[in-house]
Design a protein that fits this description.
Blueprint lengths: L13 H22 L6 E5 L5 H9 L4 E6 L2 H11 L4 E4 L14 E4 L9 H11 L4 E4 L9 H13 L7
Parallel strand pairs: 1-2, 1-4, 2-3, 4-5
Helix pairs in contact: 1-2
């Protein structure tokens, strides 16, 4: 790679869903239960990926609106296939949300915070879009060892020693 381009190993979304994304739907529902918010809110899902958290919002939260934002074109395509016209999806980075000031009541983010290049700028954007609102996020427990990934890669190494995802 040259010129600082970011390689998108999950460009089509399908590979991501088979590897990690399927866990996202399970975590999303638990996260929303934990938030315990009323219906009728305007939601923004920053780093919506393939749409798991947005789908859980739509299915369980009785939202007024859901905007999903994702920098990966492949993930936006996958989220569009998953959600249809139930959410408004934007290809955009977290650091530059294409939404009006005060246009959301709650901003949520699934396991993307670890991958945002300028987290301070992203948080400032979230505050701009939902001033006085709620910002909630979760990430994978990398410090706790990510057991599901460790087990996966140990099994993959047994099947194909020295193999790679490329």
């Amino acid at each position: 790679m040259s010129g600082g381009a970011v390689r998108d190993n999950w460009g089509h979304g399908d590979a991501y869903e088979r590897f990690i994304g399927r866990w996202s739907s399970l975590v999303a529902v638990k996260f929303l239960d934990w938030l315990d918010l009323p219906g009728g809110l305007r939601w923004v899902d920053v780093g919506c990926g393939t749409g798991a958290l947005s789908e859980a919002i739509l299915d369980t939260q009785d939202p007024t609106s859901v905007n999903g934002l994702e920098p990966s074109a492949g993930f936006v395509r996958a989220a569009t296939q998953r959600l249809g016209d139930r959410a408004t999806l934007h290809q955009a980075p977290a650091e530059d949300l294409p939404l009006l000031d005060g246009s959301a009541d709650i901003i949520v983010s699934g396991p993307v915070l670890n991958f945002i290049p300028d987290l301070r700028a992203a948080l400032a954007e979230m505050q701009r879009v939902a001033p006085g609102g709620i910002v909630g996020a979760y990430v994978w427990d990398y410090g706790g060892g990510m057991d599901m990934l460790r087990v996966f890669w140990e099994a993959a190494d047994e099947v194909d020693p020295g193999g790679s995802m490329d």
